[in-house]
């Protein structure tokens, strides 16, 4: 009888781990070390968003449309585009939370982003120190390191 209980317990534990591992793997992907070219080019204007925050198809469209990147010309030479694109594709989000392509390929419009920030008031987004949901570093104190731990959030006043 103990052998069956232990076996059942082991099977249950294995199933629980199997259900969590893909989520953990994707969370680790969000903290992938940034490609130096990506950091220097993209973080010149905004936070260097971790590649795991968008699916590959969204990154592909964003990189193909750099001359009209959210109202700004973010054009790069072909070699840099190719290098950054390959890195983004290799590290794009793959778990279910980021597999769905968000409207206009905006991280802030993704279902997982909206769910994570549903308790943030509209007034908070309008604070001078925040300005918009895209300004992760305003509240996430370790966003520049690709870490968005809820316990390190500090809402500006």
Keywords:
Diheme cytochrome c; 157 residues; mainly alpha; 7 helices; globular
What's the helix and strand layout?
Blueprint (H helix, E strand, L loop, with lengths): L1 H29 L5 H7 L13 H9 L13 H14 L4 H4 L11 H6 L5 H4 L32
> Which residues sit in consecutive blocks of at least 5 with pLDDT less than 50?
7-30
Helix percent band: 40-55%
- Got a strand count? 0
Strand count, sense and barrel status of the largest sheet are: none
Return the string of H and E elements. HHHHHHH
How many domain modules?
A: 1
Distance between the termini: 60 Å
Signal peptide: 1-25
Pfam family, one: DHC
Keywords: Signal
Organism: Ramlibacter cellulosilyticus
Architecture overview:
This protein is mostly helical and 157 residues long. The chain has one domain. 46% of the residues lie in helices and 0% in strands. It has helices at 2-30, 36-42, 56-64, 78-91, 96-99, 111-116, 122-125. Helix 3 (56-64) packs antiparallel against helix 4. The model is unreliable at 7-30 (pLDDT under 50).
Question: TL;DR of this structure?
Answer:
This protein is an all-alpha fold.
